[in-house]
């Protein structure tokens, strides 16, 4: 699918509208696999009501929900938002890079590019303003994240372990466990992140 995707935002309790392309992608992948909404709900651990709203284009799912739905369908989040690479090379234009999280102070998480699932690699760029944070309940087993801080300092927490990652430094995390990213400093935080999910 090569439908252009509008940018998404996640704004806490506010519900924004997910793009028609994302809703069409979820519905298309589900129908290709001949899955009912009930079965996808069971596999993903996401309510049937939420799936109905996603497919109608009237809900804006969080990154965590998109990850669960993608894993249940055996695809990547990049497949859902149409930033996967075709063989041998594929350009994702700047205006087609979706914003999948927006902090309450204007921070963003952009999915720059990704490979097709289920064994997938994604490249993200995060910007967080002081006081912003993002938490994830965890990804499937054998999910790894590689992070590099370009500006500011990242507070990375994985389960009970917490790391301070200053500018110019990198970190590696196994993120099947609950984890979070936060900017507890006084300057804007910018970091890039590669996510690898390995099933085979």
Automatic annotation (TrEMBL):
Pfam families: Cupin_2, HTH_3. Keywords: DNA-binding, Transcription, Transcription regulation. Residues 26-80 form the HTH cro/C1-type domain. SUPFAM superfamilies: lambda repressor-like DNA-binding domains, RmlC-like cupins. InterPro entries: Cro/C1-type_HTH, Cupin_2, Lambda_DNA-bd_dom_sf, RmlC-like_jellyroll, RmlC_Cupin_sf, TransReg_Diox_bact_type. It comes from the Bacteria. Transmembrane segments: none annotated. The keyword Membrane does not apply. PANTHER family: HTH-TYPE TRANSCRIPTIONAL REGULATOR, HTH-TYPE TRANSCRIPTIONAL REGULATOR SUTR. This is Transcriptional regulator, XRE family with cupin sensor. It comes from Candidatus Pantoea symbiotica.
